[in-house]
Give the backbone structure.
Amino acid sequence: TNRQEQLLLRSLGLSERPRPAGSLQPRRHVPSALWRMFRRAEKLQALESQPCMVSEYGVRGNIVRYIQDQGRMVSGWSSSCQACLEKHLFFNMSILQPVEMLSLAHLEIKLHWKPLSPVQLLQGSQAISASLYKVIRSTLNGTNPKVNRRLLLSQSVQLQPESTSITMDLTAVAESWRKPGSNYGLILELLPLGPHPEEFFLFYPGNSLPLEQDFTFPLVQASLVAVSLNPNRCRSRQRR
Amino acid sequence: SAIHIPVTPSNVCKARRLYISFKDVGWQDWVIAPQGFMANYCHGECPFPLSESLNGTNHAILQTLVHSLDPENTPQPCCVPIRLSSISMLYYDNNDNVVLQHYQDMVVDECGC
């Protein structure tokens, strides 16, 4: 049975039976967008109108992955930027098989914010500057980390209470990460804007707000939606 | 588990119901959805003469003719899937990423000779 299972898993594009964290950790939430795509695919299966298209993104593909960020908070108040927060973002692209063709990589960063003071609550939103850098190479101790970064995005964002999103097409960057030894991830730099940014005590190291006991979800939550096509499992439609 | 549906007048080539439950094969810890799917399979004979309901290929008709003349050396045509459809699966990978994958040719819709 094991041999047969191995053969079947291989035909499904899996080298082995996946071993998720299981009962040791709470299961990762399934994004609602993926559920919607799954339900839609179930309805369309009988039609097979465009079997290797992901119509939600308008690209060719038969695999959609929500790749988790494995990066960590660099520091609450980094040395390179006194009043900002830096978060390292890392998406393991080696999970894609070499045969797969990456059609789309879409970065989504969710910033969860809860006003900490009545003034902030009244203001309703808070502006921050968000910069996203690609890390080109690893930084040696004592050297300026900014030398090894390339700016990808810089924009000001109005933080809304509870949640705000930043999205970006990262297809070309994610494709470059597939080359072994070339994925150093991204750096997200968040700088509060306004006359007194130091009073805007928004971010803490460790991804959580220690002052708020009920505030348990992460402040910076990033995921990379990767759509890829395995051409070996996408035959062309038969001519009639 | 296979459910055999009696076919009249004889056991001719036809798609049979086969439900595959991911729990039965022990995949419930990583497959999120679906819980299972109607995979089906083909079973039955391709007797002479092949009727239109058996979805025989021209080759199968010729092979049936030759089989009737030389049954020792030429077998009857096989009952095989002629139309398959796909399923989509949602699952966790080793890194706990959620993956949606589309698999072609997983469901036997129709069989023929």
User: Anything to note?
Assistant: Chain B touches chain A through 28 residues (CB under 8 Å).
